[in-house]
Design brief:
The chain has 133 residues and is mainly alpha-helical. The protein has helices at 14-36, 48-70, 75-91, 96-114, 116-120. The protein is elongated.
């Protein structure tokens, strides 16, 4: 199967796409939480400022890693971030959204672990331009 303009389709497993979609959703959902001031990650902790700053960076990292995972890169960082999100949100007692995020990131973690061999293959590279032409 080829895509428009003659580019070959990427043979990406569905679980990789699912994990990338979950990471992107968690990152965007986290940013939305930070934007409206619903700090589910901080709970009743006294030092909200630094924690919110770290959360902002981690949610941005989740979005970047979602893109990298779809490209076949960033597996180790994505697995670690999914595990951290699953643990932190599972331990955060409060809104039910924390449980949902913990379950989703746990699914992303499992999907990434199941497809680790796909990431070990050669990365997709752009076509070479022949200098002789």
């Amino acid at each position: 199967m080829t895509l428009p303009r003659g580019r070959p389709a990427v043979d990406r497993p569905v679980r990789v796409d699912l994990a990338a979609a979950i990471l992107a959703f968690v990152g965007l959902f986290g940013w939305a939480q930070l934007a409206i001031g619903d700090y589910a990650v901080t709970g009743s902790l006294p030092a909200k400022g630094p924690i919110v700053g770290v959360a902002f960076i981690l949610y941005a990292t989740a979005i970047v890693l979602a893109v990298l995972v779809r490209m076949g890169r960033g597996w180790l960082a994505a697995v670690n971030l999914a595990a951290v999100f699953a643990i932190i949100h599972a331990l955060a007692i409060g809104p039910r959204t924390n449980l949902l995020i913990a379950i989703l990131t746990g699914i992303a973690f499992a999907c990434l672990l199941a497809e680790r061999r796909w990431f070990a293959g050669p990365p997709s590279s752009p076509p070479r331009i022949d200098a002789a032409r």
